Amino acid sequence: MSRLQAQATPAGRSPRQVQTGLWLFAPSRESQGGSAWWLEPASGHGAGVLIDCPAFNEANLAFLQARPAGRIVLTGREGHGRLRRFQEALGWPVHVQEQEAYLLPGVQQLIHFSAESELEAGLRLLWTPGPSPGSAVLLAAEEQERPSLLFCGRLLSPVAPGCAAPLRTRRSFHWGRWLRSLERLRVWLPPDQPDWLASGAGLGALRGEALVPSARRLIDQINLQALEAEEAV
């Protein structure tokens, strides 16, 4: 038994299902109060995706170990949490943008990408620096009964029910790159996608809701010029 396995594991509580094939984990202090997600493969076969790390507890571990196959996608350093313990327990590959791969020395099956990556058909990653140097988003395209989803990490944070925006904190990396990432995101996204936004930040501002609707319209309506002007003042 390794030193990590020997550490006590709290009981915790299981994630809740919020859409077909989509679960939300409880906020994790290990990720500064952020949100982690589990996305089942739309076909019912293949590997699911754990987007960022939830709290390492018995309930979350049992939920993930019950899945036949999976992989982990990190949307930024704030979502790393107890990655090493999850990876050791699950044995899943970990996808991370290359700017933050150095933060995970010794992690097995570490797969890093530069500007873009495609995990499989309908699952695409885009590097979006700004919240942190290696921030990234994951787009799950519309498929069968599942609407399109954008897992945006900390690129957009809930600020009110049904609304999200770029929200700097004392740990934020670079505001100018953040705004350029949002501009690039608009070009990269397919027309009329995504339907829903799944943030990796805390979701308290959504008042009990888990997702932000009309996500493409929200992204298109962000006033980047005004945000840039605020920084210059």
Let me know the CATH homologous superfamily. Ribonuclease Z/Hydroxyacylglutathione hydrolase-like
Using the coordinates shown, work out and report the CATH topology: Metallo-beta-lactamase, Chain A
The overall strand count is 14
What kind of sheet is the major sheet? 7 strands, mixed
Question: What is the mean pLDDT?
Answer: 91
Give the CA-based shape. globular
Structural class: alpha/beta
Strand order of the largest sheet: 1-2-3-4-5-6-7
Radius of gyration, taken over Cα atoms and rounded to an integer in Å: 17 Å
- SSE string, helix = H, strand = E? HEEEEHEHEEEEEEEEHEHH
Poorly predicted parts: 1-6
Give the CATH architecture. 4-Layer Sandwich
Helix count equals: 6
* CA-CA gap between termini: 56 Å
Oligomeric state of this protein: single chain
Question: What fraction strand?
Answer: 15-25%
Helix fraction, binned, reads: 10-25%
